[in-house]
Amino acid sequence: MHSGANSRYGRLGLGALALVFLAAVGLVNLTFRGARLDLTEAGLYTLSDGARQVLEAIPEPIQIYFFVSRSGLADSPGLRSWADRVEDMLIEFEASANGRLEVSVIEPAPFSEEEDRAAAFGLQGVRLQISDEPLYFGVAGSNAIGDEEFIPFMDPQREQFLEYDLAKLVYTLSRAREPVVGLISGLPLTGGFDPATTSMTEPWIITSQISELFDLRNLDGIDDPFAEDVDVLLLAHPKESTPAQLYGLEQFLFRGGRALIFIDPLAETDPASPSAGALAGMPADRSSNLEPLLSHWGVEMPAGPVVGDARYALRVSEADGTLARHPAYIGVDIQPAASGEVVTAELDVLNFAFAGYLRPLEDAALEISPLVRSSADAGFLDPNMLAFTPDINSLWSGFSPGDGPLVLAARLSGTVASAFPDGPPAEPVSDDGNADEDSANPLAAAEAPGEPDESPPARHLAEGEVQVIVVADTDLLSDRMWAQAQSLFGQQLISAFASNGDFVINALDQLAGSTGLLTLRGRAAFSRPFTRVDELRVEAEAQFRRTEDQLQQELANTESRLAELQQSRDDVYALSLTPEQEAELEKFTEERLRIRKELREVRRNLDASIQRLGAALKIINIGLIPLLIGLGGLAVALMRRRGRRRQS
Fold this sequence. Notes:
Helices cover 37% and strands 19% of the residues. It has 648 residues and is α/β, with parallel strands linked by helices. Among the domains are: 49-174, Glutaredoxin; 180-302 and 354-375 and 402-425 and 439-447 and 460-519; 532-617.
């Protein structure tokens, strides 16, 4: 009778506990409806401020479609997890877009309307070893006026740039027009007349690629290039810039413009040299800089020294046709120094020639983020020695590596006071009393024909935000440093052997984005290694190796002892063991069994430690966390109830 009552009370207690649990779950759902709590270490499910700015600035509704063949990912846990990650990020985008972004998840079955829809967006099914059918794993979008953008395949290798890639797609659909890139160059990027061949030259390959992706406008010769409707200024090799021109550049940046700037201590492709592309003889001045504007921002490119690199030196052809490693021609391997920067993401090698370096100054006004660095085996070369030393091998005798790593390209960002606090600087006056203009300067303002410009001057800005990328080399833009072009049936085919073009396009692409897009960087990876398990395994392996080494040492000692006993016998060639040898062998056998037992114990302890850790994690994830959330929900509900009672 007593045991039956206890059993009945036990069942009632379990039922009551189940009711309490269900009530707690209901209260939590009501209390925290729509609430999100990201407990991941790197905030994987929390949008950055930059992404929120992009989403909040959407002017009209945008439709986003996530095409994913989940049925084909059944045998790939990694891709299934990655698909969930992409979907979760899109849901966060939708929740933060104030109703202007609608996300649809579509599974395109073979020969279905959904598959036709994916194909209409430009997505293509890929065939993986895990499935016989083509798999779709891409994101597409459209805006109110019918513009479409898509990411053909969500590559898991770009996991850390997931937020940026999605935000860029949304921003592209929300902007009103194609970005405008204004080109001001002291180099023949758009082609020109070659006096050596007395013929016209073709535009550089990089210029053609920029024209395909942006609205490229050549601002050379325009009266006031900084007054043009330009989003990003591509400034290449600005020589002998006047204060008025530097002021115009600064005010352009203060008014929301961005700039990609290439300067150089020794531009090999400068057409001002007697023989462009050759270093024979005394060349004309082929340097360019933006001083004192750069130093006001907090960085400088020291005039004169050229960077050489013993590790990244490239092989070039000498006069006799042989190949030799040239310290001033360097191919920087980007992968080992990969970071969260979108500009250098997935780049391979960047080729530089006679590059300078950027040196941050103390108390820099702007934030300086290095994008490309030399190796630690970098050093400095004298430009005069480069000009008068035709033998490449002899350059190494005067080269002393070890000054690196040196910054070859950097991003400068932040708010800074004007370098011209008194407003526009006065133009210098020449001997004839007229304003002196340097026609060789790519920043120089050309005389505008016709009537003078009567528009009122722009208001002077005493401070503003600067967003620029500075590269201490201009030769990386030239064709011979990164690509070859050949004509096939009337079409030009480009074969790239370095990532210089991708670097320039990436930089322009990011600078042309919104302010929020500029602040986005790579995020932490979703997949996290079991670091504690790895530590346990490494510790156990070390102990296992020590014990195994001990066993091997004792085995060697025993064999040595047995050999000594054998040599000490009078009957050296006898096959039977002496009592001393038998005792030594028996002792070793017992010791070997003991050590092997210890080895098994080490392995067993490792497995037990991992199992205990796994059990603890399961208890925390399955039991403790839900319990804490439930108690928190009950506490909030009780506090609200007490508050209502006090108000009543």
